[in-house]
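Entry type: protein chain
Record version: 2
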Amino acid sequence: MRGAVALAGVTALAVMGTGAWLPGVSAAAGPAAAEPSRDSSPSPAPSPDLSRYYSQKIKWAACEGDGAGLMSDPDATSVPKDKNIRCGKITVPLDYARPDRGKVEVAMIRIKSSGKPRGSLLLNFGGPGGAGVSGLLAAQKEFEYLGKGYDVVSFDPRGVGESSPVSCGDAGAQEPEMEGDSDDPGAVLDEMRKISEECKKKSGPVLPYVGTVNVSRDMDVMRAVLGDKKLNYLGFSYGTRLGAVYTAQFPGNVGRMVLDGVDTLTEDVAEQALVSAEGRQTALDNFIDWCTDNAGCVLGTDARAARGNMAELVKGLDTYPLQSSDGAEFTGQDVVDVLGQALYSRQSWPALSQALGALLADGDPRALLRMSGSLAQQPPTDGLSGTGKVPGRAPADVPADNMAAALMAVNCADDPDRPDADSLEKEVGKLQEEFESTSAIFGRSMLMPVLFCYGRPPGTDYIRDDVRDVKSPDFLLVGTRGDPATPYRWTEETAKRLGSAAVVLDNKGDGHTGYAGSKCVRSKVDGFLLYGEMPKNGSSCGVEEED
């Protein structure tokens, strides 16, 4: 419902650059390295002494909570006392160039292998801003087969969840909107600046040190603490950006790596948002084609007419929202939000069709609202980490806006571009037109996040300039043709940029990421991670019919 979620618009960027697997060398566990790899980059010379971080021991203990506040919520109900599921924390430098500036605690979760482990498999579910501790607990059944050969591990990246969570407080509770020609772009930018200042106040010292480059270095510390010579990694969506950066910083430490739902490494925030709007529109077109090809489709039998009717539905509800007995409004943008979630997984399409039918026939949005709530609870391997929805509930000490605030902070930290106010004010009208022409349905919701980096310092240029032609063992990239968030062309572009070590698996299906939705993709990914069976570069998985 309108205005219900702080910084809600930021979640539109969740998958912008809400997986990677390191291949090649044997993943057998070995003694932890005392020093970080000399391949680490960027790094000052001489390198600071980080041995105390690499040689630390993690204290594993029973997890507490229901999946969102596993570490520190004293009022939470304990999870089932499975002795194989344990949580813990490690410390990493706040600033790797100046380790004396302070420390950050990083929360981790481990599910012990049910067989003979060959080491650890580290997971990142995307976002950026997705919590891995609660994510793995919610999705543990998805990784039971991989758990036969690995201790399956995940973590809350710095700034997220139980790892010094960032927040913008109430500053973003009502997101500024840009509608029509009468809005003042300068006033919107002033609001963005105020939000930026509030984020600084609420987040504390960790905020300048969030971002993919530092999290990648944190992962190398995790590798050593877990006792692994090589990092074995499975990353989804934004997690593919994280994995790609690791291959550039620590090429000699790469084990078996899979990146699923491949992110861009080169496009700026505005271009990413535009491409994501286009991807969502393509996914919606595919859903409409599927629906109109089936008897009894609530949208009719004419796909072209159905597309037009969908756009009119959103426009009509934005102009004349439905109103509940308590005064809450249901707008066209609420429809867009549910579409954005449901299109991430083809399994959601039948339920989406039924929910739209109730809205169109009776003006009843309750099925859509229920669907939105249930999608938010599904495991993040369905790609739902990219919607800004995280399974479980936030613990008492994690701000309610943490996912959105972390997403914004990381995307801004990874983007070196900062147009000045004059340039942005001149470009706003052009951007509105460009986004709405790309997608009349998704364009508006994708535009506002483009402005959220205004008022923040420029981010790193390392990812855009230096993550290329990596010298690591071969690793696997999985791209899905009907992905609404990370278009297949990003897989091709990223593979070309990373060089010959990047092997591409082409998933012809729909949905965000391939591992959860395609049996073929799952089989090939599992085969590589467990047995080193790398698919041939350019091999594919076909469209699979629903069971």
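Comment: The longest strand covers residues 85-93.
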